[in-house]
Each structure stands twice: as C-alpha cells, then as structure tokens.
Amino acid sequence: MGEFVYSREGNVFEPTKWAGSPWAEGLQHGGPINALFATAAHEAAEETGLRPVRLTVDLFRAVPRVPLELSRRFVRKGRRSALMEAVLCVPGSSEPTSSASAVLLAPSEGAPRSWEHTPAPPLALAGAEAVDFLPKDSGIEFPPGFHQSFEVRMGADEHGAAAWITTPLDFTEGVPMSPWQRCAAVADLTFGLSGRSLLRQRIVDADAWRVPMINVDTTIYWERPPVGEWFGFRHALLTDHEGIGLAEVDLADAEGRLGRSLQAMISNAPPGSKRKTDAPA
Questions:
Q1: Is residue 280 part of a domain?
Q2: pLDDT per residue over 108-162, tens digit each?
Q3: How far apart are alpha carbons 101 and 94 in whole angstroms?
C-alpha cells in the first residue's frame, strides 16, 4: 500500500489519516494504539533480553487523533521477569489518554515442552474466503482510518468458525509493522470480528445489536513470538450480562496457535436501544 500510520519524532507519534477511527472524525482507532504499546513492550524486551508474554491496553476514553508521546518505565526489572508500564500523553500534558502494562519473561531456549494443549488446529488461511470488512450497502459514510486498511477472510470447518485478518499498512514511513505490532493492532477486533464470524457462519443465533457493545481494554497472551502478517481468530467466547461483556479468542499465525486475546466490554447504547445499521467492529 505504501501508506503508514504514524510519523515518529523520538517518542512522539503523529497520526496520519490511517490512524483514524470509524466512530468519529478526529479520533484514533484502537488498533494503532495497541500497536504503539506493543512498540513499548518490544523495546523493553530488546533492553532486557526478555520476551513479551502479556500485553494489557486500557482505553480510558476515546483517543484524539493528535500527536502523542509514548513513555514507559519498569515497575520491576529482574533477570528472569519484568513488568513494564507505558502511557500515551499529549506532549506537555501529564494526563494519560491511555495506558498499558506488559509482562516480560526469560525464555529457556532449547528446553523441552512439558505441556501442550490445542483443542483443534487453526483453520488454514487458504481455506478461508475473502470478505469485505466494511459493509458496502450500509449507507454509512465512515471517516477515513485504520478500519479501511483491513483484509479479512472467514470460514468454518468441523471445529467451528474462524477469521483471519491483516493490514498492509506500514507502522511509520518506510518501516513495516513488526509481527508484534500487527498482531496487537488486529487484536483490537477480538470482539467485533469474532462476533461477525460466528454470526456469518450461523454458529450462534443472537440479536447481536440488541445491546451494542464496545471494548474498554485488550489483553493479549503470546505463547511464543508471532510471525508473518496474517493473524487468525478461533474458538470465540462471547458473553454479556447487564450491559457488561467479555470476549475471548484463540490467536493463530502462519505457524499455528499463537496465544489468546481477551476484552472487557460495556454497553454503548441506552438499554433497550437497537442499532439500525451494520457498522464495522
């Protein structure tokens, strides 16, 4: 595509139009925010020689599409484990727009495996059908942004529904997204894409928009370093009660199962209201 999400000057990231959100002009999509915090986690990993195992991103409020400064610190930094915290702030402000924490652990390279439990293999990318991420007949004019870059494939087999997603965008000009950044970015779709996959394959019979939901966080567990550009969602668990919900999916990449992604959600509409149009996740 030759397009990129941010211009970088030191630790300040200025969003391009590709960082935009479908919800309103002037807001950032959650995917690029996840990628920024994955950047902090990976830089912390390079500093310590440890490996990111868990990344949790907390979204306090809608993130404005303005330059943001990324800073990080170690809560604990040891030989075998570390805990890092990171925040995004408007330069000159001490009030975070969002924050994240990451657990980093020391791998024992060459150590034999003790436990391995994979309920079912991921659906092969080649077995999934290309679909439009943005519905063409919705009648909605979406602001430009990250959501317009997605390539999505969906399918199902005897183990259930699955979805694959990628974005061809570079992270900064001339610098491709790393697998860590791209995986974190598309994990923002944990609820939206997995729910759409279940509905499309008629795995569930639900009025998905009875109470429209929006995620307030994303937690990714990586069992190993991610590889490649495409990431799969499988074995989705979606549930809600009194306007609060949880979403959970298995993550996969070109080499198979990769880890898990989880989100907490909250009602994004008054009780009893119903969304009349199909908007993107």
A1: no
A2: 988 888 887 766 777 788 888 998 887 766 556 788 899 999 999 998 888 888 8
A3: 18
Residue 228 — left, alpha, or beta (φ > 0 → left; ψ -120 to 50 → alpha)? left
Which residues touch 30 (CB under 8 Å, ≥6 apart)? Answer: 21, 57, 59, 63, 188, 215, 218
Tokens of 191: 């609820």
Contacts of 194 (CB under 8 A, 6+ apart): 163, 233, 236, 238, 247, 249
Q: How many beta carbons lie within 10 A of that of residue 120, not counting itself?
A: 14
Range of the domain at 257: 4-106+125-140+147-267
Q: Which two tokens stand for residue 111?
A: 């150590």
Nearest to 235 by CA among 157, 162, 126, 154: 162
Compute how many other C-beta atoms are within 10 angstroms of the C-beta atom of residue 210. 15
- Phi/psi for 269 (5° steps) reads -155, 160
Helix (H) or strand (E) holding 40: helix 30-48
The distance in angstroms from the start CA to the end CA of the chain is 22
The answer to whether residue 274 sits within a structural domain is no
Q: What is the CATH number of the domain that holds 254?
A: 2.40.160.210
Of 69, 59, 1, nearest to 34 by C-alpha is 59
Domain presence at residue 199:
yes
Number of folded domains in the chain? 1
Question: pTM of the prediction?
Answer: 0.90
Four-point Cα dihedral 182, 70, 98, 225, nearest 10: 30
Residue 281 lies inside a defined structural domain of this protein: no
